[in-house]
Amino acid sequence: MATELKKFHLVHLLNQLHLSKNQKKSKYDDLSFWLTKEEGKSEEVAEVNEEKQPSVEEQPNVEKLKKKEKKSKKDKKEKKKDKKKKSHKTEEETEPIPKENGDSVVEEVPLPQLSSYKPLAENKSIKLTYETRIDMHQSQQVVLSVIFSNLTNSQLKSLDFNVLDSLNTRLVRESGASQHDGISVPFQLPAGATNEGQFAFTVQNVTMPQKLRGTLTYMIKDESGATSEKIDFKVHLPVTAYTAAVPCTGAEFANLLSSGDLQAKISLKLVTVAVEFHHALHRICFFTHCRLVERVGDTASLYSCSIQNHHICLLVKLLANNGISIEGKGSDATLLSSFIDDIKTVLSEV
């Protein structure tokens, strides 16, 4: 019995060994099958690719297609560039020059610095310069701002400033003083010193220019003592001394021109001006106190108003050979005529 049992186990063990060999073989067979299948696929793909590759005769057509594609892309790029150029050019052509307010013209060659101070009088010991100032809330007053400069190595003291009255313009003095009484300047001038004094005038009519005679008396004090000196002068008050560059929009400017209130008209033509157009506009605005309402190319609209509410509207154009024409309309004919004369003077003094 034991012998038979041993034989049975031995037979069973042999059968198990034979079965495991068959299983391993099937695994290998399966793996080799998939590998063969993948190789077959790769060969098929290779064959298909070989079929799809163009022949030598067909390759030029592909190159032509590529060239056409490149050409079409290039054409598209050029068209885009052309569109950009055209749109940029259109913006440049149609873009108006921006409105400019104030006394200067922007986006041009840098403008020179200007000074509103004018020479009043000068001798070996003292120099006087002045400018006029106004307040739009003071309809009958103009202020003369005078700079006193000591040109000596000595002290200047007891300065007395006086301007003779006219029927239209009078120096504001202390109560009870006559026109022969001057105003005591509230400072002394050490050697080489400079100081500024302000003197108010009342004015009745601002439509006419004024010239007033005046005198400054003073004492020069040095080691040897004090000597009395005087210097005579003339104060020139043009009508532009009473005007201001009041803000004015394009719509307000147009309304003024169409309102019928500006009955006075005048024109001026200058054959040639020594400065460029934007420089000329700068000088006009600065010295005659105009507001630049609008500028388009070689044409500009200017506006000014007096302390007594006189309106002045100007159209300034650039002519051939750097000439300038000015068309003016205003509330008062006398004021407008004098105003245009002041502009002529400003442009001739370049």
Provide structural commentary.
The chain has 350 residues and is of the alpha+beta class. The chain contains five helices and 15 strands. The strands form three sheets. Strands 10, 11, 12, 13, 14 and 15 form a six-stranded antiparallel β-sheet that branches. A five-stranded antiparallel β-sheet has the order 1-2-3-7-5, with no helix packed on it. Helix 4 packs across helix 5. About 21% of the residues have low confidence.
What is the number of strand segments?
15
Distance between the termini: 145 Å
Task: Give the overall average pLDDT.
Answer: 79
What fraction of the residues are assigned to beta strands by DSSP?
25-35%
Tally the helices: what do you get?
Answer: 5
Class from helix and strand fractions: alpha+beta
Shape label: elongated
Low-confidence stretches: 19-68, 83-106
Q: Describe the sheet with the most strands.
A: 6 strands, antiparallel
Radius of gyration: 48 Å
SSE series: HHEEEEEEEEEEHEHEEEEH
Percent helix, as a range, is 25-40%
What assembly state would you assign to the polypeptide chains in this entry?
single chain
Please write out the topology.
Layout: H1 2-52, H2 59-94, E1 118-122, E2 126-133, E3 141-150, E4 155-163, E5 169-171, E6 183-184, E7 194-203, E8 210-222, E9 225-237, E10 243-244, H3 250-259, E11 264-270, H4 277-288, E12 291-296, E13 299-306, E14 311-318, E15 324-330, H5 333-348
Antiparallel strand pairs: 1-2, 2-3, 3-7, 4-6, 4-8, 5-7, 8-9, 10-13, 11-15, 12-13, 13-14, 14-15
